[in-house]
């Protein structure tokens, strides 16, 4: 009511989200010269009791009125309940945002035509919302902010001047992911014991040496194999790769073969 106060008496029309819509609110707005339409929760105070339990087949609807206020329960892909002090419950055919002709009550068409950025933003957010479970609230808030930023970027992109054909929402999300990944580097080796990149292991020059302080290590190549020497600790290593290696065959395999453990 405070937000609409400057518009009282101007016969404006406001479209309201289900979080705020109630019979009392629309009556109060109507009494002050403001029309309204909005989706509403069926359990909201003043709503018809039958709307809470009624299940309609697709395409059917129930209409009830209270003075200038009209309540519509309509079933399409799911049941939706609307309140309006303007509009019509008569079935009408109109083109949706994709150009497809859709048959629905006039009040539904009016809501779809006049709903603002909040509902449209929520629709875009839920299209590719990451599905994950976490008990930590900060993670949910963080992902919500990231998705909101991606949606805002897509809206700005859609309204920008681009010569070539614009990407749809899915393509735009994929491009964001590719941009975030960038020129990623290769991960660690299969066993997770070597902290070196494969390209450096195979391309750089390496020299075998004694392990400092007379310490011993397992050979990175032969320690995992079955045999008499499995698990034997050795005195030699490659200081550049920081791994233990036997002199000769193991050292050569480690620095020349991609799958040196086979």
Strand order of the largest sheet: 1-2-5-4-3
Shape, please? Answer: elongated
Uncertain segments of ≥5 residues (pLDDT<50)?
A: 187-197
How large, in whole angstroms, is the Cα Rg?
33 Å
Specify the structural class.
Answer: alpha+beta
Elements, N to C (H/E): EHEEEEEEHHHHHEEEEEH
**Assembly category:** single chain
Number of strands: 12
| Beta-strand content | 15-25%
The helicity comes to 25-40%
Distance between the termini: 74 Å
The largest sheet, given as strand count, sense and whether it forms a barrel, is: 5 strands, mixed
- Total count of helical runs of at least 4 residues: 7
* Mean pLDDT figure: 81
Number of structural domains: 3
Characterization of this structure:
With 262 residues, the chain is an alpha+beta fold. It folds into three domains: 5-115, no CATH class; 120-181, no CATH class; 198-254. It has seven helices and twelve strands. The strands form four sheets. The protein has a five-stranded mixed sheet, with helices on both faces. A three-stranded antiparallel sheet has the order 8-11-12, with no helix packed on it. A two-stranded antiparallel sheet has the order 6-7. The radius of gyration is 33 Å and the shape is elongated.
Summarize this entry quickly.
The chain has 262 residues and is of the alpha+beta class. It has helices spanning 23-31, 106-114, 117-127, 137-159, 169-181, 198-203, 249-254; strands at 12-16, 34-39, 61-66, 69-75, 79-84, 91-95, 101-105, 209-210, 217-218, 233-234, 236-238, 243-244.
